[in-house]
Amino acid sequence: MMRYLTEEYGNAGSRTHEFGVRAKQAVERGREQIAAVIAARRDDVIFTSGATESNNIVLLGLANSAEGATRRHIVATAIEHKAVLEPLEHLAKQGFEVTLINPDQSGRVDAQAVLDAVRADTLLVSVMHANNETGVVQPIEDIAADLPKPVWLHVDAAQTFGKLIAPLQNPRIDLISVSAHKIFGPKGIGALISRRRHGQRAPLSPLMFGGGQERGVRPGTQAVHLIAGFGMAAHMALRDHAQRQVACLKFRDGVLTAMAQLGGQLNGDQEHCLPHVLNVSLPGLNSEAAMVALKGILALSNGSACTSTSYEPSHVLVAMGLDQERVECALRLSWCHLTPAVDWPDVCEVLGRMM
Predict the structure, then answer these.
(1) Given this model, what pLDDT does residue 211 score?
(2) Residue 44 and which of 115, 193, 195, 317 are 20 to 30 A apart at CA?
(3) Beta-carbon neighbour count of residue 25 at 10 Å?
């Protein structure tokens, strides 16, 4: 990244000189590296500021298209990230009908329930690959297998891109939202993958105007250094996927042992859970108090980072049908292959004194 901030500071949109040519080469190399993770084509990759923007481009862009003028029904789940739920609220005010499918207490939605909600006027089905609060992986492959062909399928893969490889390589998934920082790339860069199906892409209307970059879907000067960093992070995620997963599973064993000693109740089906995310309720221990007590020992949360300024109960756990006390006692823990060892006996001692 530093190379493209100092030595190679060209604009990838400038075709008349060597500086621009080399910048464009860096952008296209990043595009190739990202596309390789999900077996897509290089020109399927549209750079954005992150999965939040990608989600908005999909939902609002499709709604503003010619198809959106005639098919005005969207199916999603009640546990989507706010970057999906809030655009859907906006579209509902514009006359769209939105059907949200609730999960059961396992944290998974039923694929058949999603498919049964599809109607003749359904424009889009949008289902996250894995929930950001519970880590529970959703049945996107089952949905993709039986979804009627006219309906576009969007997957918010912020939590799984570069971590769960095979499911996102399914060509029936038309649109995928991803963020670089979730795979240790730079913050402020992401992508929308827009695949061709039978030679046709989803008809996305741009949300901004002022240039032809990114196939006219997302105008603006490309952030070459961020794209280069994202591309390298994607390359490393694909290359090192197996080793990273082993490290995360090993760390998970320590987390589970500690939570069991504290009488923790795991929220979400652990048979369908990411190896690096855990949501647990500690009976009798308010999550806010636990976070204060562990400050300086662990960095943990009781929900999504995007809603960390809000003290409202988790909409995900509420949608799962968990009781109020269990929701209020819930903690979200996540880690990676680089996370240093934790003194779990010390953590148990601190929390045990509060219970």
Answers:
(1) 83
(2) 115
(3) 14
- pLDDT for the residue numbered 272: 98
**What gap in Å lies between CA 253 and CA 268, rounded to an integer?**
16
Residue with tokens 């198809």: 67
The distance of Cα 96 from the centroid of its chain, to the nearest Å, equals 24
d(CA 109, CA 136) in angstroms, rounded, equals 10
266: left (phi over 0), alpha (psi -120 to 50) or beta: beta
Alpha carbons 85 and 108: distance in angstroms, whole number: 17
User: Hunting for tokens 């089905």 — which residue is that?
Assistant: 125
Helix (H, G, I), strand (E, B) or coil at 179: strand
List the one residue out of 142, 165, 146, 153 whose CA is nearest residue 40.
165
Residues designated catalytic:
306
Q: Which two tokens stand for residue 311?
A: 């003290």
CA angle 73, 71, 115 (to 5 degrees): 50
Mean pLDDT of all residues in 95-105: 98
**Which domains, from first to last, does the chain contain?**
2-239 (3.40.640.10), 242-352 (3.90.1150.10)
Concatenating the DSSP letter of every residue in 321-353 gives T--HHHHHTEEEEE--TTPPP--HHHHHHHHHT
Amino acid making up residue 272: H
Q: Are 148 and 176 in contact (CB under 8 A)?
A: no
The confidence score (pLDDT) of residue 1 equals 97
Are 59 and 125 in contact by the 8 Å Cβ rule? The answer is no
- The distance of Cα 60 from the centroid of its chain, to the nearest Å, equals 18
pTM of the model: 0.95
* Angle ∠(161,268,264) on CA atoms, nearest 5: 120
